[in-house]
Amino acid sequence: MPITLTLALYCFAWFFLVRSLRQRQSRPPVAVPLLLAGALIGHAYSAYSLLVTPNGYDFSLFRIAPLFFWVANLLVLASSIRKPLYNMFALLLPLTALSLLSALFLADSSQSLIQLSAGVFAHIVLSIFAYSTLTIATMHALILAYQNKQLHNRHATGFVRLLPPLQTMETLLFELLWTGQLLLSAAIISGALFVEDMLAQHLVHKSVFSALAWLTYSVLLWGRHQMGWRGFVAVRWTLSGFGFLILAYFGSKLVLEIILG
Predict the structure, then answer these.
(1) What 3-state class would DSSP assign to 58?
(2) CA 75, CA 40: separation in Å to the nearest integer?
(3) pLDDT tens digits, residue range 153-207?
(4) Taking CA 254 as the corner, what is the angle to CA 191 and CA 101, rounded to the nearest 5 degrees?
(5) I want to staple 180 with a disulfide (CB 3.0 to 4.6 A). Which of 25, 134, 186, 227 is the partner?
(6) What is the residue extent of each domain of the chain?
(7) Strands, E, within 86-152: which ranges?
């Protein structure tokens, strides 16, 4: 099965990556990007098969999560070509495996299928790209917070020594935030243009929390530009914005499909 093969490739990549981290290597072995590239191909096929059927699209919680993590893995791998981001896979790959296992064993094939217009489909794709990019930014912020704390406590050993300089890490964080904010803005605009009846489609909850996330990230980016926000201040605002995104998407899915379903 493609999902089983994808999981195996991710597990091998994670094993080699963790081993290289324990050995304090500056870069992972060549096998890691090759395994990840192969896993992403199988992952793409698996995500497509879960979502697209001859009778429509299935965007239930457990079926859309693998696509979400596919985008996240793809962006991290692409960014790793010019920036040292491979360490993020140590956190990202277990979550990816969990999403695939959930799709394999918990996805309900009896979920109602939907037909989508081109505009709504574009809105969904933009949302997935935005959420994935901001997920990567959040993971990066957590690593940055740990690095900052260790450096302040003069404990720059082990994992921290493998990270780029703190200034480079902060620059990368805000590059990710700017990219995610632009994608989130496009997703919100496309939703306003193409979604006809938010009340009938139970989208008010999602729209409100998405707007709160957009506002939070906007304040953070303004604070960075105007007041030089950095360090733990930037991390706290990043986590706050991501919390609203979690409530916007996964919270609404949880309420509609599990609690009320």
Answers:
(1) coil
(2) 11
(3) 766 566 666 667 788 888 889 989 999 999 999 999 988 887 665 544 556 778 8
(4) 105
(5) 134
(6) 1-105, 116-261
(7) none
